[in-house]
Amino acid sequence: MQNKNYNTRALVESAIMAAILIVTMFITVYVPIIRIITYLFLPTLLVLIYVRNGLKYALLGGICGFLVSLILINPITVLGLGAVIFIVGLTFIYCIGTNKKPYQSILILTMAFIITNIIYVFLITILVYKSGFVGWVHNMVNQINDSINVTKNMYINMGMDKEQVERALAGIESINVNQVLWMTPFYLIIMSLLSAFFNYKITYIIFSKIKIKIQELKGINYFFIPNLIGAFMIILLCLGLIFRSRNMIVGEYLFYSTYSLLVVILSINGIAAISYFLKYKLKFSNIFIVMTIILLFLVISYVFIIIGLVELIIDSRKLDPNRIRKSR
Question: Domain check: are 228 and 188 in the same one?
Fold first, then answer.
């Protein structure tokens, strides 16, 4: 009898999840501005049903919601969100099921979001833009340039000096298709990393409210770059330089994307190291730490990159289990 009640409850919760999926997808179609919220929230539904009732009911609710939405809503939107639900959701379930640490989970979820974003862009370029990915980028650049021209004319009509307006918009006006293509891998990785981070945070907050325990993600003080990832990125950067010196197009993509990504993560690593040192070694308050980091950023921002690189090598916080220098 107890087992029957459990099955009934699990089926009801799966049906509720399917209904929420359908409603959420409908809202996303008619209110596109909340797409980013649904993008981060939908995988949590699948994980929630898994934690409460198991994988079978999680898949049942997800598949039912997906199929009904596919019939009623724009297929491209449903396929894109469906990729998020199943690829990211199942990846998150794997992380919880294998008891991965928070930062390991975020790294794995980042890969899942990268795959999801690639699938979504592929669907857009195949089903909407007949000229493929490059045509999609070209159309996006044209839209940016059109917006710049409208903005420029608006400011000039308001009485602002034409040369001043052109100087202010010069950096944006210089954007072209090649630059966007070079930076695409960088933006893809950064957006996927941020999506993974916020998805984990949202899931943790929701689960905390309903008394379901998952490992808490520690603050930025504990952010670190594993040596293996750091070495891999440096190798990619060197390969990009070599290919670029031989006038190979792939060298431009590889170099600019890897360089931009390396600068960002080294800067974050540097901020984390400074914050850790000030908080736990010198016992400064959080307000003082924030003010110090802001001041350094405004005056000598490159110091974060240098400290991040040094911290990658020596790992003074001893966070990386595979660090180069280990205590004896």
Answer: no
The residue type at 82: G
Of 180, 30, 120, give the one whose Cα is nearest residue 128.
Answer: 120
Q: Are residues 172 and 90 in the same domain?
A: yes
Query: Which pLDDT score is estimated for 131?
Result: 66
Hey, what amino acid is at 40?
L
Backbone region of residue 247 per phi and psi (left: phi > 0; alpha: psi in -120 to 50; beta: other values): left
**Structurally, how many domains does the chain consist of?**
2
Distance separating alpha carbons of residues 254 and 59, to the nearest angstrom: 38
**What tokens were used for 70?**
């596919």
Q: How far apart are the C-alpha atoms of 249 and 38, rounded to whole Å? A: 37
Q: Which portions of the chain are predicted below pLDDT 50? A: 1, 328
Q: 71 and 13 in one domain?
A: yes
Q: Is 191 helix (H, G, I), strand (E, B) or coil?
A: helix
pLDDT for 238 equals 92
Name the residue range of residue 88's domain. 1-216
Residues 27 and 150 in one domain: yes
- Choosing from 216, 232, 261, the residue where a domain stops is 216
pLDDT value of position 183: 74
Neighbours of 155 (CB within 10 A): 17
Nearest CA to 125 among 114, 144, 140? 140
Half-sphere exposure of 67 (CA within 13 A, CB side): 7
